[in-house]
Design goal:
By secondary structure, the protein is an alpha+beta fold. The protein contains eleven helices and 15 strands. Strand 12 and strand 13 form a beta hairpin. Catalyzes two activities which are involved in the cyclic version of arginine biosynthesis: the synthesis of N-acetylglutamate from glutamate and acetyl-CoA as the acetyl donor, and of ornithine by transacetylation between N(2)-acetylornithine and glutamate.
C-alpha cells in the first residue's frame, strides 16, 4: 500500500462525521458516569456490517476490548457499538468482564440485534468498576430517532479538548461510496497499535478478509505513527464497519478500484491520527516528521517514531529552540541502520544539518518557524528509497498539570 495519500479522487465532506455513510446513525447522551459531560455514545447500522478491529498491544487488555474481540471473531459482523467515557473498566476482574457482557446484552436488546452483533468500548480511569445502574439507564434511554453524530463525538472524549470527525466520498463502479470516522485520544498515546479509540464506518461493499487486512496495514501508516507521551493504554482499539449499502461490486485487492477505496480509507485514518496528535494533552503544536531515503520501510518508521517520541525534541519544539542535536540523537538511537555522513535534517524549509554536518542558519528565522502551530521536521537518511511519516506534539507544562491531578 502506498504511504502517500492524495486527494485527487477523494471528496472531503464538509462537517463530515461517522454517520455520513448510508445506513449509519449515531448519538450520545449523559448517563452519570461523568458529573456533567456526555458520557455514553452509540453507533448503529441498519443492517449487519462486515467488521474489522485492531487492538492495543498492552498486556492488560480491558474487559470491553475482550468482549468486542469475541463479538467480531464469531462472524466478522457488527451492527451496533456502545462507548462510555469516564471509567475504562480495565483491571476490574471478573466483575468488570460481567459488566462488559451486560453492556453488550443491553445494547443488543435495545436495537433488537443478536448479542454478537454488538460491540462495547470504554475509556477513562483504570481500576474502577462502572456504575452499572447509570449505564443501564443510559442504554435504556438511547433514542434511535434522536441522532447526533456531534454528540457521539463528544460523549467518547476524556481529556480531549475537541471532537474529532471526518468523512469523505469516492466513486466505485459508478456508485457513491462514503467513509466516515470519529476518534478520541489526548493522553496515553504511543505508536504501538492505535492507542486511542477510533470508529470508522463505510457503506462500501467489501470482502471481510480484505477489510481486515486493509485496516491493519493502514493502521501501521496512521494510528501507529502517532505519539503524545509514550504510554500505551489498556482499552485502545479501532473498529471498522462496512455495511455494503452503497451497492458497489465487492471490493478486494483484485478489484480495479481497490486502490481508490484504500486511499480514501487511509485519508480518514491519517486525518483522525493527526487530530489526536494535535490534541495531545497540553499540546500547542502538531509535529510532523517526514523521513525519506531509508533502506527499509521499518527503518523509516523507527526513525520517525524515535523523533516524535523524544521528550527532549518535544520540549525543544515547545520552546521554539532549534536544538537539532536532539533530533540527531533520536535518529542515532532509533535502531535503524544509518550512515551519519548521509543524514540531513531540516526544520520546515530551513536546513540545519547537511550530510552529517551543521549548516549555518538564522536563529531568529528558525525560532519564528518553530512558533507555528504545525512544525515539520524533514529527515533524509540517504540509504535507500523508503519513507515514512509520523505525528506527535510538543510537551508543555500543561501536560504535567493535567496528569498530576487526573484522578482528582
Amino acid at each position: 500500500m502506498n504511504q502517500t495519500i492524495t486527494t485527487e479522487k477523494i471528496n472531503i465532506i464538509a462537517n463530515g462525521n461517522i454517520a455520513a455513510p448510508k445506513g449509519f446513525s449515531a448519538g450520545g447522551l449523559h448517563c452519570g458516569v461523568r458529573k456533567k459531560k456526555l458520557d455514553l455514545g452509540w453507533i448503529y447500522s441498519e443492517i449487519p456490517a462486515k467488521a474489522a478491529g485492531v487492538y492495543t498491544m498492552n498486556s492488560f487488555q480491558a474487559a470491553p476490548l475482550l468482549v468486542t474481540k469475541e463479538s467480531i471473531a464469531e462472524e466478522q459482523l457488527l451492527q451496533t457499538v456502545v462507548v462510555n467515557s469516564g471509567i475504562a473498566n480495565a483491571c476490574t476482574g471478573s466483575q468488570g468482564l460481567a459488566d462488559a457482557y451486560e453492556m453488550r446484552t443491553l445494547l443488543a436488546e435495545k436495537f433488537n440485534v443478536e448479542p454478537n452483533y454488538a460491540a462495547v468500548a470504554s475509556t477513562g480511569l483504570i481500576g474502577e468498576l462502572l456504575p452499572m445502574d447509570n449505564i443501564r439507564a443510559g442504554i435504556s434511554a438511547i433514542d434511535p430517532e434522536k441522532q447526533s453524530s456531534e454528540q457521539f463525538e463528544t460523549a467518547i472524549l476524556t481529556t480531549d479538548t475537541r471532537e474529532k470527525g471526518v468523512a469523505v466520498s469516492i466513486e466505485i463502479n459508478g456508485k457513491k461510496v462514503t467513509i466516515g470516522g470519529a476518534a478520541k485520544g489526548s493522553g496515553m498515546i504511543n505508536p504501538n497499535m492505535a492507542t486511542m479509540l477510533g470508529f470508522i464506518t463505510t457503506d462500501a461493499n467489501v470482502d471481510p478478509s480484505a477489510l481486515d487486512q486493509a485496516l491493519k496495514q493502514l493502521t501501521d501508516q496512521s494510528f501507529n505513527m502517532i505519539t503524545v507521551d509514550g504510554d500505551t493504554s489498556t482499552n485502545d482499539m479501532v473498529l471498522l464497519l462496512a455495511n455494503g449499502l452503497a451497492e458497489n461490486e465487492v471490493l478486494n485487492p483484485n478489484h480495479p478500484e481497490w486502490d481508490v477505496f484504500v486511499e480514501a480509507l487511509g485519508f480518514v485514518c491519517q486525518t483522525l491520527a493527526k487530530e489526536i496528535a494535535r490534541d495531545g494533552e497540553g499540546a500547542t503544536k502538531l509535529i510532523e516528521v517526514q523521513v525519506k531515503g531509508a533502506d527499509a520501510k521499518q527503518a523509516a518508521q523507527a526513525i520517525s517514531k524515535a523523533i516524535i517520541s523524544s521528550n527532549l525534541v518535544k520540549t525543544a519544539i515547545h520552546g521554539a529552540d532549534a536544538n537539532w542535536g536532539r533530533i540527531i540523537t533520536a535518529i542515532g538511537y532509533s535502531g535503524a541502520k544509518i550512515n551519519p555522513d548521509h543524514v540531513s535534517v531540516a526544520l520546515g524549509p530551513i536546513s540545519v544539518v547537511k550530510n552529517g554536518v551543521p549548516v549555518a542558519f538564522d536563529e531568529e528565522e528558525v525560532k519564528a518557524y518553530l512558533t507555528k502551530d504545525t512544525v515539520l521536521i524533514d529527515v533524509s537518511i540517504g540509504n535507500g528509497m523508503e519513507s515514512a511519516v509520523g505525528w506527535g506534539c510538543d510537551l508543555s507544562y500543561e501536560y504535567v498539570r493535567i496528569n498530576a491531578s487526573y484522578r482528582t
